[in-house]
Request: fold
Amino acid sequence: MHEDGNAMAGPLGEIFTMDVTSAVERCAGCGAANPVAQLRVYRHAPGWVARCPACEQVVLRLVRGPDAAWLDLTGALSLRIPMPTR
Amino acid sequence: MARAAVPGRLTGRLAWRVATLAGYRDETPTARTLVLEVPGWPGHLAGQHVDVRLTAEDGYRAQRSYSLAGPADGDRIELTVQRLPDGEVSPYLTEVYSVGDPVEVRGPVGGWFIWRPTATEPVLLVAGGSGLVPLMAMLRARRAAGSRVPFRLIYSVRSPADVLYADELRRPQPGVDVSYVYTRQVPEGWRTPPRRISVADVNSGGWPPDFEPTCFVCGPTGFVEAVADMLVALGHDPSRVKTERFGPTGG
Reply:
């Protein structure tokens, strides 16, 4: 059973100053583009594992240790991050 | 410390801070709204949530996400917590956690499953159980902003006794329609036996796709995926169907 990328807003907000869940991720496996908020997130692991909702490939992994966070984005080709306009 | 210029903390790194329980309201026998005082709260948008962290005397920590139930009142925020019988955090927050007690919170977080009062398109809200909470925040933000955007809410709930914010929903704001689906027990004289939400409910309680509404769906994973599929099958653009799923470890 999974939840979705909305649940990663807090853990990612600890690292990034922008809300990464609003970013559009492009999957390195199938090329599908989806908001990070809509990735399938699995938590029964030592961290967070987010999979592409189209092809199930792992696109993002986040493990938080006591003094460091590990972020693996191997499965993501790109993140399109919305930026405020001035 | 300077307050964020943009409500809802859309920029700036996030840190834990200590909140205090200022009061509470029991919504149903198993759900309680916590009113938390959070010094320096930066404000938030409807649909955002907070992470709550508890630390035991032996250092063991448990962390959960809860949706904000309505607009902030200065430094006061409201979370509605549904008690899960085998939960780890929710029984504490709804039965033990007392006025004056501290708790750590981090937020507001989430910038995607949100409704802004400046939006003009019609809105459909579809709630499964306590998935109503962030959607109620959108209804309350609509009222607070004096928005006239038409809203429809379809609320799937186990029984009449499980309805959250029942008094408020019984008297909806002008321009808000509310319909119910009961999954375990129906009110006296209800037109159907208990059942799961169907495409007919979504069709009759929602908006036609050519109105181009924004659809927000929140609830348990299975519910959310079923409703999202129904909306897309009815012709709604998937990019206008926004979903938020509860995890299996919600408690």
User: Anything to note?
Assistant: Residues 26 and 38 of chain A are 12 Å apart (CA to CA). The first helix of chain A runs from residue 9 to 13. The first strand of chain A starts at residue 3 and ends at 4. Chain A has a mean pLDDT of 94.
